Amino acid sequence: MARMIGHILATLLPVFLITGCGAAYGRYRTPDIRSLNTLNMELFVPLLVFAVLADRQAPLAEYAWLATAAVAVVLGSGIVLWPLARWLKLDIKTFLPPMMFNNSGNMGVPLLVLAFGPDALPAAVVVFIVEMLLHFSVGLYMLNPRTSLWRMLRMPIVLASLAGLSVNISGLPLPGWLLEAMRMLGEVCIPLMLFALGVRLLEIDFSDWRTGMLGAVLCPLSGLVIALPLSGYCHLMTCRWPCCWCLQRYPPRY
Length: 254
Description:
Helix content: over 70%
Oligomer: single chain
């Protein structure tokens, strides 16, 4: 029991400390967080995505089931909560997208890497890419059906994903020093996303806290409703990093 608590604290404390540093710095210095996020999403994150996907040592074929499961969890959460949102008379466009598109970048990537080590980085990036693509396609359509998909295709992270997959599938060899430089620059985004999250926490509006509390409960529950049946099946699909719950039951095979 003590060992498990120690592992949980070792995983969560760095996340809280870095986020807390961002909140403390943001309170006293008021940094330009928009420029910071722009730099992160247009340079560091795309470099990390490309480096992970272009690395031929990463068994991307083993993550196909993980990507499919991620799509099912994101879209399934919206389907599960849609009747409840209608029954509670909540604004569908306001309530459902946050329930479907979680913070898999700022929180998800650092948590997975801290919990399962650097070997989990490809899996974390795959889930992050899936959610980002759905966010800027399905999510934008939910908010405005007239939104053009061309906007999504011009995003640096989408271009980096397509380029990385093309390099990996084609077998094009890239110099190790180039991939290492891209990975080192890309890994800057992990603590930077947490730091930026801490600054953004200062802008939270607590006026509608009841809806926020409802979402905080329903969001993970709706994901579990979809993920638990999938996690029991993912071992049969030889998925290397299916989900945190399944990782405890089926350690990754090397």
